[in-house]
């Protein structure tokens, strides 16, 4: 099996991430967000990791693992405020995409997410993981359902109609 590795993204990945931003499958999945790579790749706040996935040494995709409560863009703030009793107050939110079209649909995304989940749930006290696919992204949603994520319902983030998905640490450990 091909070797999958996750490494920290750096400013040296700027051109790569900008190219991936233009890939049709990435535009379709994330049409409205500006990731401001030129500034974000230069800082390492402790509430997030920005990771490049490499398969046999070739970069193919990106993941961000962030604390939704501490994130300074307050992306999740309205959802968290609307769900004050949800354990997502101690959680991580993950964004993921494969930038290289010829690397889609070969299991790499599943392995990337599984590796991220192992990292997340190795941190004591983390209750679960949030995802926010576009409601229209049925293939990604099917993948997340297969991994055990449950659908908490619709939510509008900016201009995007999304679904909020949740995987609890308890469900993950019973997989
Ligand atoms: C979603 C994604 C990370 C999954 O990684 P992957 O390596 O392609 O998926 P895997 O091979 O591990 O698993 C296959 C499943 O992934 C999903 N998938 C495959 N290609 C996909 C694509 N172009 N877009 C969305 N989901 C896709 C499907 O559920 C597929 O199962 P299916 O063939 O039965 O429909 C990847 O397809 C991708 O980056 N898609 C475009 C960006 C995106 O949708 N990101 C998620 C935003 S929430």
UniProtKB/TrEMBL annotation:
The protein's Enzyme Commission number: 2.3.1.-
Presence of the UniProt keyword Acyltransferase in the record: yes
Record Pfam families: Acetyltransf_8 (PF13523)
GO MF: acyltransferase activity
Domain N-acetyltransferase: 4-171
EC top class named in words: transferase
Name by which UniProt lists this protein: GNAT family N-acetyltransferase
Biological source species: Luteimonas flava
Organism classification: Bacteria, Pseudomonadati, Pseudomonadota, Gammaproteobacteria, Lysobacterales
